[in-house]
């Protein structure tokens, strides 16, 4: 059930068709269409966002993320259905992915500043993978470092340029290697 829900949620963001959803979660086209219709009945704002975003992009040729950064979508009015359809999905997705990317960059900058300011040589930011950050820390400093990471990452909900009314959630896992964390 969780796998199907995840496929529907992410699929909708990427503009998945009933055929694509049916194939991905191994159900009939009719069932997939029912899932999509039920989803949009429960969350009509998402359907409206998608429609308004495409409409705005057709007029302007770009979309904005929540920080105002533009992504130009050049083929949104293309005569070729496949090109146009792909660009519509890109127009819907770009503000979401672009906003998430900027939030992650702000968190990384703040964390790097915190690590340098505190001269915390025991905590090292190693890698970003989508919406995850991988750190290396000595086991004896794990609890304290986890608190610092969580505090800094959730602080990104506010800056001199923005403030979110909804808190940012941060999950922390630890293990001897990345494979153990999943």
Question: How does this model look, in words?
Answer:
A hairpin with a 5-residue loop joins strand 1 (62-64) and strand 2 (70-72). The protein has 182 residues and is mainly alpha-helical. Among the domains are: 1-42; 103-181, Alpha-Beta Plaits (2-Layer Sandwich), CATH 3.30.70. The chain has a two-stranded antiparallel ribbon with strand order 1-2. The protein has a two-stranded antiparallel ribbon with strand order 3-4. The model has no long low-confidence stretch (mean pLDDT 90). It has helices at residues 2-13, 18-25, 29-42, 44-60, 81-117, 142-155; strands at 62-64, 70-72, 123-129, 132-137. Helices cover 56% and strands 10% of the residues.
Tags for this model:
mainly alpha; Alpha-Beta Plaits; two-stranded antiparallel ribbon; 6 helices
The Rg value, from CA coordinates, equals: 20 Å
Order of helices and strands: HHHHEEHEEH
Q: Ranges with pLDDT <50 over ≥5 residues?
A: none
Strand order of the largest sheet: 1-2
The end-to-end distance, rounded to whole angstroms, is 19 Å
Main β sheet profile:
2 strands, antiparallel
User: How many β-strand stretches?
Assistant: 4
């Amino acid at each position: 059930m969780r796998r199907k829900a995840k496929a529907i949620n992410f699929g909708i963001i990427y503009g998945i068709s009933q055929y694509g959803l049916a194939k991905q979660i191994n159900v009939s086209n009719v069932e997939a269409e029912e899932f999509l219709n039920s989803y949009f009945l429960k969350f009509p704002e998402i359907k409206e966002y998608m429609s308004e975003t495409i409409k705005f992009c057709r007029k302007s040729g770009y979309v904005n993320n929540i920080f105002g950064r533009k992504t130009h979508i050049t083929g949104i009015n293309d005569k070729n259905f496949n090109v146009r359809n792909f660009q519509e999905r890109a127009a819907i997705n770009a503000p979401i992915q672009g906003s998430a990317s900027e939030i992650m960059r702000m968190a990384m900058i703040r964390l790097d500043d915190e690590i340098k300011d505190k001269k915390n040589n025991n905590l090292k930011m190693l890698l970003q993978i989508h919406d995850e950050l991988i750190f290396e820390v000595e086991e004896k400093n794990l609890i304290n470092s986890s608190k610092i990471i969580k505090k800094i990452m959730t602080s990104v909900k506010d800056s001199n340029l923005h403030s979110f009314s909804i808190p940012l959630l941060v999950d922390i896992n630890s293990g001897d290697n990345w494979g153990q964390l999943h």
